[in-house]
Amino acid sequence: MASREPSGRPLAIVTGASTGIGYELALQCANNGFDLIIAADEPEIERAASDLRGRGARVETLEADLATEKGVLELCALAAADGRPVAALLANAGRGLGKGFLDQEPADWRQVLDTNLTGTLLLIHKIGRDMRTHNRGRILITGSIAGFIPGAFQAVYNGTKAFLDSFSWALRNELKDTGVSVTCLMPGPTETEFFERGDLMDTAVGQQKKDDPAAVAKVGFDAMMKGEGDVVAGWKNKLQATMAHVTPAAVLAEQHRKMAEPGSGGR
């Protein structure tokens, strides 16, 4: 565990930081002068911490399930023990789930809801209150362009991202007269372990070429530092997001079905 003596660097919290976009967001923080508290629900978080310390950052880790109140409170306690106000919260932890809703087990879709929504909101609520008290801070929420699309065969996941995309703008408005900014990063399909973990590898979206998580993270980090409201990573995703606003929901759902239906990857 890293020393808690003051370093003169600002402190950032990054969740879901063991791999993928979360790790790359933490790397952006380390490369731009932040010390870090990183959290994930897997032991790979320690490997990520070792890599980040090589960039000159002081890094503390927490292996915990952030879908639970216990995990979120452990993370908040770790931040409080550091003694510095949290300068940036990058709420990236998320979970996906493929297949038809009626074919999923309730425990599985509840885990998606608790990870993507309940745990994320509890963390933002606690850290955000401290930021408001200090009248200073940056919050980056990882949403998705999936939030614009009725997600046939990813119905629960897309629904959670629609919530986060909307929530981030609402919270931003509530904090507009403070020194706290809220930014929503909305990536498209990105080359991470998300698709394997979500049982989506036999789908068209699981097998297609995806965006580079490092590039996605840089876009999100830069937008957060500029205090922008949202950012869609990648020009193709920007086009898709724009078209989603003018395309009937039934058409969008059918298009999503062709990408996410089990077995679609072999068509």
TrEMBL record:
Annotated keywords: Oxidoreductase
Transmembrane segments: none
Gene3D superfamilies registered for this protein in UniProt: NAD(P)-binding Rossmann-like Domain
Record has Metal-binding as a keyword: no
GO molecular function, one term: oxidoreductase activity
Annotated InterPro entries: NAD(P)-bd_dom_sf (IPR036291), Sc_DH/Rdtase_CS (IPR020904), SDR_fam (IPR002347)
Alphabetized Pfam families for the sequence: adh_short
Keyword Oxidoreductase: yes
Family the UniProt entry places it in: Belongs to the short-chain dehydrogenases/reductases (SDR) family.
Protein name, entry field: Oxidoreductase
